Every structure is written in C-alpha cells, then in structure tokens.
C-alpha cells in the first residue's frame, strides 16, 4: 500500500487504496507527509487507510525519514520518477534496498550513498522478470530447521544482502547456514539457503543499528531465543509496535502464554531462554506471529494450540502444508 501510494502520487488521477483489518491498522501518515511535500494531495482516515491520492505535477524533494523504513523510502523514490528535478531520501540507518536495485537495473539515473539515495525523472517501456522466494518467509523455515535439528535446503530465494541479515544474527545464535547464488534477477541475487543440522541455539545481542535489517524476522528470532540457552536482547525494536499488530506486546503476551519469559525494556525486547514452550497462543491476525507461533510448537514436548493460524497465508500461502510435507505434525481445526 505504501509503495502504491508513491506510484499513485505520480499519476494524474484519483486513487483510493484500502485493505483488510490488519493492513488498515498500519500508520500511513508517514508516507502521506512526504508525498504531500512533493505536491500530491493525500488524505488518510485518522492516519490510516483508506488513502485517497490525487496525483500528478510533483516536485522532487530532499527528505530525511524520521524512522528508517524501506517502504517510505521506496514510495518517495517511485513518486520521484515523475517529479520535476531530483528526489533524495536520507536515512539515519540503512534499510532494505530492493527498490534502488530495481530502478538501477531499469536504467534510472540514480546515485546511492551510505545512507542516501537520489534519483531523477525516468520512464521505462516495460520489464520481464521472475520474482524469487521471499527471504523473510524463508527465515521461518530456517528457524524451524534450527530448532528441530534438521538439515534443510531452501531453493529459489532472494539473497539480497539487506534482506538476509537474519542469517548473521542466527549464526551468532549457533545456526550454521550457507547461501549459494545461482542467478541474478533484475539486479538481485537469487539462489539457495542451506541450513545444517545442529544441536540447539543460544542467546545473542541485536544492536539497535542492525534492528531495521531484521525487523520482519524479530518474531522468529524471539521464538528461537525462547527455546535457546541464555538471554537475547533485541535493541531499538519500537517500530514493532506499529506492524500488523503491536508485535512487541504480542510477543511478550504470547511467549508468556506458552510458558516462556519475554519483556519489553524501553524499546528493547528481552527474551529469557531455556524454557520449554507449550499451551495455547493467539496470532490475532498477524501473519508473522502466526508463523512464529507454529514454529514454536515444532520442538515442543507437548501440544501447542495456535489460534488464527490462517493469518500465515497473508504472506506465505501453504506454510502449514509445507511444514507437514517436511514431517511436522500439524492439525488444523476449522472454526
């Protein structure tokens, strides 16, 4: 929705963007504000979807994102393709860079620095390409393999370095993986992730400056930490309060409901390891929470019930069926 808002802002007509309950709970003023500064008319409903965008006749701007977020950065860059003059986005910390890579592959005039991207107006005739598997979805399979001591190869995965930092964090937790690039698609490396069978995981520290690079993988990292040895601290995780759910609060609540120990200290998520998980938990419409809670059940010595597990299909259709094909014992009870 945020990226489409950038496209709509550069289009000379009226667009209305809306979504389901979880998407409509996300804050949208953070993308509306810079698009208005470029000349688009953007209205939100109390800061949320639906977004009404009257686009066209944009002017390039230099924008410092208050919160490092690839979605807002990308929306501004996409709007900048039709704006008069250059458009620059500056960030306090690096974020995922799919949009810059794609624009560069298309021939867009672009300058990339450590924490800034500048583009100039550009129109392209068309593209052809294949979308690889999502690395954030693959993270839940890597976590499942690590927690069950399994050897696993995941094929056709996007291996953009800004998307697989979770593998570095997992390496600090004792998980051994290897990546093999098999081809390049629109400037993006694509290939395999191999997970070696191990004998458990341990706690680690995730610094605030690296948290944006694992923002979508925090739920599975927290579950792994709960089942590992030692304490794990994920610093600067406040952005998780405005995902599809308040993931900070949800992780504390649901890990606690499964018998684990997890708490929030300021913007840090602190997870105590070494506690067997079991019982019942609720995904509450959040796809990544649903997948993380299912993975929590795999090494459990007792039954784990996850309510609203169908939310996983939002980003990973067939997740439960895939785990079953890998040997997991999962029963879905229809409401």
Map the helices and strands.
Layout: H1 2-9, E1 14-17, H2 21-24, H3 29-37, E2 41-45, E3 48-54, E4 62-64, H4 70-80, E5 87-90, H5 98-106, E6 110-112, E7 116-119, H6 135-148, E8 152-158, H7 165-172, E9 177-185, E10 188-195, E11 205-206, H8 218-227, E12 231-234, H9 247-257, E13 261-265, E14 268-272, E15 279-282, H10 287-297, E16 304-307, H11 319-325
Parallel strand pairs: 4-5, 11-12, 15-16
Antiparallel strand pairs: 1-3, 2-3, 5-7, 6-7, 8-10, 9-10, 12-14, 13-14
Explain what the structure shows.
By secondary structure, the chain is of the alpha+beta class. Helices cover 30% and strands 23% of the residues. The protein has helices spanning 2-9, 21-24, 29-37, 70-80, 98-106, 135-148, 165-172, 218-227, 247-257, 287-297, 319-325; strands at 14-17, 41-45, 48-54, 62-64, 87-90, 110-112, 116-119, 152-158, 177-185, 188-195, 205-206, 231-234, 261-265, 268-272, 279-282, 304-307. The strands form 5 sheets. It has a 4-stranded mixed beta sheet, covered by helices on one side. It has a 4-stranded mixed beta sheet with strand order 11-12-14-13, with helices on one face. The longest helix is centred in the middle third of the chain and has 14 residues, at 135-148.
What is the compact description of this entry?
30% of the residues lie in helices and 23% in strands. It is α+β, with helices and mostly antiparallel strands. The mean pLDDT is 93.
């Amino acid at each position: 929705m945020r990226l489409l808002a950038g496209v709509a802002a550069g289009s000379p007509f009226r667009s209305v963007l809306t979504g389901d309950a979880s998407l409509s709970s996300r804050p949208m003023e953070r993308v509306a504000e810079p698009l208005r500064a470029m000349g688009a008319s953007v209205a939100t409903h109390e800061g949320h979807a639906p977004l009404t965008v009257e686009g066209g006749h944009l002017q390039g701007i230099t924008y410092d994102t208050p919160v490092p977020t690839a979605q807002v950065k990308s929306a501004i860059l996409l709007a900048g393709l039709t704006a008069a003059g250059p458009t620059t986005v500056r960030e306090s910390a690096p974020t995922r860079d799919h949009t810059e890579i794609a624009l560069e592959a298309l021939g867009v005039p672009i300058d990339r620095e450590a924490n800034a991207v500048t583009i100039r107006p550009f129109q392209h005739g068309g593209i052809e390409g294949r979308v690889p598997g999502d690395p954030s979805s693959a993270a839940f399979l890597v976590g499942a393999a690590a927690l069950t001591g399994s050897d696993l190869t995941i094929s056709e995965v996007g291996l953009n370095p800004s998307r697989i930092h979770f593998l570095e964090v997992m390496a600090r937790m004792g998980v051994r993986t290897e990546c093999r690039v098999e081809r390049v698609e629109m400037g993006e490396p694509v290939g395999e992730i191999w997970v070696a069978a191990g004998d458990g995981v341990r706690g680690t520290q995730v610094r605030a400056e690296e948290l944006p690079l694992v923002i979508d993988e925090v739920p599975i990292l927290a579950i792994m930490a709960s089942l590992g040895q030692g304490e794990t601290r994920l610093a600067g995780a406040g952005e998780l309060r405005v995902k599809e759910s308040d993931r900070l609060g949800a992780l504390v609540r649901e890990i606690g409901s499964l018998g684990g120990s997890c708490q929030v200290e300021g913007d840090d998520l602190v997870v105590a390891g070494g506690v067997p998980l079991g019982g019942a938990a609720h995904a509450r419409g959040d796809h990544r929470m649903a997948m993380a809670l299912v993975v929590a059940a795999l090494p459990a010595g007792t039954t784990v019930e996850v309510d609203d597990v169908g939310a996983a299909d939002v980003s990973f259709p067939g997740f439960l069926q895939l785990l079953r094909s890998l040997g997991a014992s999962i029963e879905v009870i229809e409401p």
